[in-house]
Give the backbone structure.
Amino acid sequence: MRPLQLVTLSGGLGNQMFQYAFLVHLRRRGARVFPYLGKIRHYGEHNGYELERVFGIALTPGERAMDGVLGLPLLGAAVKHIVFPFKYRERGESDCAANAALAARHAATRFTGYWQGECFFADVADEVRRLYRFDERRLNAQSRSLAERLHGSTDTVSLHVRRGDYYKKDGTPTDFGRAFTADYYDAALAYLAAATGKTVAVTANPGRLTGEMLRPIVFTDDADWCRAHFPESFTVVDWNHGPDSWQDMCLMSLCRHHVVANSSFSWWGAWLDARPDSLVVAPRQWKHGAASPDVTPSRWIRL
């Protein structure tokens, strides 16, 4: 009989994608794995369960029934402890090898964590790419127009700036906001310019998305900050919000090269670009004061 396992899904789209990819890996290993939507479904966290709305990954009737039972007060907690008696919480300070070894210890296990790293699903990477395919027909008019320009472009760079929940109301950064400074973006673009032999477009009218310049496309939750800190030639995508935010990730994946933030959202935007010669620059530190050696693939450039 296949062991029963449970993977808790939480957070926004990027985190859900990591957790579900880990679930696919566990299934490949032979377990019967149930997703538990927890806060997503029962407490309205972020935009809810996004994998179904964005990628069509719907829960089966059996999965939906299990999730419903586990979400019941008192009874749900009892079922968790009876059906999934072992609990494993991902060790954030550990590397992939340590987490993977601990995760494999027990059969009937509840897995809680984010599982951020390609190493947690490397054996099913092709299947994950098939699952996470965007339907560009669902893009809104502005996104569709930009997507048409991005297809086939040789010089576009997705550049992700995440500030909203990385800064407190008084403007002081959290540990995620302190992971790197704005100088990181200058260094990343300088690296890409040197690696491609192109310059960064800084003129007011960059023209078409072709030529010998790199054309940064900025994706952000703080458009005002980006317009104040980057040249006018940088295209700032500021129209996808709430349930439409997935369209930013789709557009990121269409860019030729990538500068990601310490965010699962732009991590996936870059990873879903499967072209082997695309360049990806990522911050060396994912969270201030915490080691994160395996979050970014070894082929990416860390600055």
Remarks:
- The chain has two domains: 4-131, 139-302.
- Residues 4-131 form one domain.
